[in-house]
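Incident log, support desk, overnight shift.

02:14 A customer reports that sequence design results differ from what the structure should imply. Their input is reproduced verbatim below. On-call engineer (initials T.W.) acknowledged and began investigating.
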């Protein structure tokens, strides 16, 4: 059924996945360069943040943009690791298609999560382990997401002019909406949704590798929907800026697009709707997920000065891209994004 296929596409585009921690897997080689640990008691970093989404998988392509400020602080430390607390403020949401109703709904969602602290537990090497304050996060997300999902359904139902047909469609949709809402607002899904960029931000701290060499490993990503782990291939490299030896560039690519990965992603989508999508419909879904990104790191301190990550979800040849980038507002670095006035992600450079 077209409705089921559309649902699968939407669920796959929304599926959260955590990164693989590369630091533990980095191969050692002579004359290596190490990304040193930046964390100690009292460290506080402030970033300008921009998140954009361009969805070409739907009948009506849509672009959104979210801007704000994130503060990353170390609020606890011990020999076992660190507690890294993230707080966001000044969030502003825009929909490029000038859909004022949808923009107002998303702004209300952003406002509902304003100043929500997100406490990430890091291990002693500075890599992400888990979120530690889910008891605070989950209720806030549930109260913010439920009215958002209901408003989205109401907007679709309002397009049906026949009253009886609209009532019938609502009766059919409500149980499914309740199920999806309960699943997406479950602790596992919310942690996967929130922790994605946090795990990438912390995923490469401590790598000790040969510069300008590519490293790769096969990984299995935890599946927030409760299905099988998702196999992927992660590659990454580190280089020293030719203009400033204090600048390190780290780039990565993680692709989950093998047939085995597609099977896991299809099953994950089906789990969200209690297995109500037929095997035939699932088998027709052609899907791949790719995460790529880059860091500009201050070599003497290990502090991230610039960070960008982009997820591309491809379904039946159509793409949805979601990009988040952060620029450190502290210190005296003068890095800027080359694509400050465009939508194409590129490397950061002092000469842009």
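02:41 Re-run completed on a clean worker. Output:
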């Amino acid at each position: 059924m077209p409705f089921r296929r559309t649902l699968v596409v939407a669920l796959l585009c929304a599926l959260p996945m955590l990164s693989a921690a590369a630091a533990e897997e980095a191969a050692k080689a002579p004359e290596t360069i190490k990304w040193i640990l930046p964390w100690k008691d009292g460290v506080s970093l402030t970033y300008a943040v921009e998140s954009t989404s361009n969805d070409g998988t739907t009948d009506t392509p849509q672009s959104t943009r979210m801007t704000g400020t994130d503060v990353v602080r170390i609020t606890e430390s011990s020999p076992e690791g660190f507690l890294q607390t993230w707080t966001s403020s000044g969030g502003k949401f825009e929909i490029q298609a000038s859909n004022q109703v949808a923009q107002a709904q998303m702004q209300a969602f952003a406002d509902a999560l304003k100043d929500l602290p997100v406490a990430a537990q890091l291990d002693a090497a500075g890599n992400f382990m888990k979120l530690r304050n889910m008891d605070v996060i989950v209720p806030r997300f549930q109260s913010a997401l439920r009215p958002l999902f209901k408003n989205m359904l109401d907007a679709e139902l309002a397009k049906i002019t026949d009253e009886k047909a609209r009532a019938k469609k609502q009766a059919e949709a409500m149980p499914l909406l309740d199920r999806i809402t309960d699943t997406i607002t479950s602790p596992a899904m919310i942690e996967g949704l929130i922790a994605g960029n946090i795990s990438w931000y912390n995923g490469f701290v401590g790598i000790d590798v040969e510069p300008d060499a590519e490293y790769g490993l096969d990984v299995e990503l935890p599946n927030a929907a409760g299905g099988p782990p998702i196999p992927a291939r992660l590659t990454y490299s580190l280089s020293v800026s030719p203009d400033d030896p204090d600048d390190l560039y780290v780039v990565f690519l993680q692709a989950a697009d093998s047939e085995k990965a597609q099977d896991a992603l299809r099953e994950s989508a089906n789990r969200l709707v209690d297995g109500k999508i037929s095997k035939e419909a699932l088998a027709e879904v052609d899907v791949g997920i790719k995460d790529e990104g880059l860091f500009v790191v201050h070599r003497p301190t290990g502090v991230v000065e610039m960070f960008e990550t982009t997820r591309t979800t491809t379904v039946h040849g159509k793409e949805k891209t979601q990009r988040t980038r952060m620029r450190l507002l502290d210190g005296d670095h003068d890095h800027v994004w080359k694509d400050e006035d465009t939508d194409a992600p590129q490397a950061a450079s002092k000469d842009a």
